[in-house]
Design brief:
255 residues; alpha/beta; Vcp-like ATPase, Chain A, domain 2; Rossmann fold; seven-stranded mixed sheet; 24% helix
Length: 255
């Protein structure tokens, strides 16, 4: 049974769907409003009607929606890129992860989800407004206890050592590659995202000079398909270029 303060996903169609918590407030939509307190005691998969008698399905929230529905104050990493990051990084329950540049907390949401219950994400962000917004998003998703936020800019090194993964999401990722190398366990991976070719090449050359191997660069494209009777076709809009993903693995180099 659904309880007070539980996170739920209310679905009418692809445009009208809401990630919200059970409370005594009301959710207002163009199909009428829903008293969120009326969700208590219901089961996932049931319907609830607005005051206008329009039914919404009560669905279990899933990670995709938690990521896409963060309140944004920055560009976010999309699930298409996050999925590749999670499979090419050493992310597991109990992992220690450093994130440089929390943004709006989209990737942080995914990282925190997979390192719990005994891991920790250490998120560095120099913009206090971005950091507060990201932590509010994480709190709404019930994942803030696995994130330690640090409002400062790193130059030489991170506080944490022997970590399992480092994600760099800043405008000049090459500035933090030395710091990432100092903090990573041997054989563990770093990832970053570069919007332009110039950033990509500067980052890769720095990685090569710093003690990283197995360097991979890629772009992830996603195309959804509209299935209609007699007129199935790809959607006209698609999330294409969001950035070049770069992965690299730390090795020890002789001085």
């Amino acid at each position: 049974m659904i309880k007070e303060k539980e996170l739920v996903f209310l679905y009418y169609d692809d445009k009208r769907n809401f990630l919200t918590k059970v409370s005594e407030k009301s959710l207002h939509t163009d199909k009428g409003f829903i008293k969120l307190g009326d969700l208590k005691g219901k089961r996932f998969g049931e319907k609830i009607e607005t005051n206008l008698g329009i039914p919404f399905y009560i669905l279990r929230p899933y990670l995709y929606e938690m990521i896409m529905k963060v309140k944004r104050k920055t560009q976010i990493l999309y699930p298409k890129d996050i999925g590749m990051i999670l499979t090419r990084a050493n992310i597991f329950p109990g992992a220690k992860v450093i994130e440089a540049g929390i943004g709006s907390g989209a990737l942080t949401t995914a990282l925190a989800n997979f390192i719990r219950p005994t891991g920790k994400v250490y998120s560095y962000e120099k913009n206090e407004d971005f950091l507060k917004n990201a932590m509010r998003n994480l709190s709404k998703n019930g994942l803030d206890e696995w994130v330690e936020a640090k409002c400062r800019q790193v130059t030489d090194e991170f506080d944490e050592k022997e970590v399992d993964f480092v994600m760099i999401d800043i405008g000049s990722p090459w500035d933090l590659i030395d710091a990432a190398h100092k903090s990573l366990k041997g054989g563990s991976r770093l990832a970053t995202i570069c919007p332009t070719f110039e950033q990509l090449t500067s980052t890769v050359f720095k990685l090569q000079d710093t003690g990283f191997v197995n360097i991979e660069c890629m772009e992830i494209l996603l195309r959804r398909i509209l299935v209609r009777q007699g007129r199935t076709r790809p959607e006209q809009k698609m999330p294409s270029h969001t950035g070049w993903l770069v992965f690299a693995t730390k090795v020890f180099i002789s001085s």
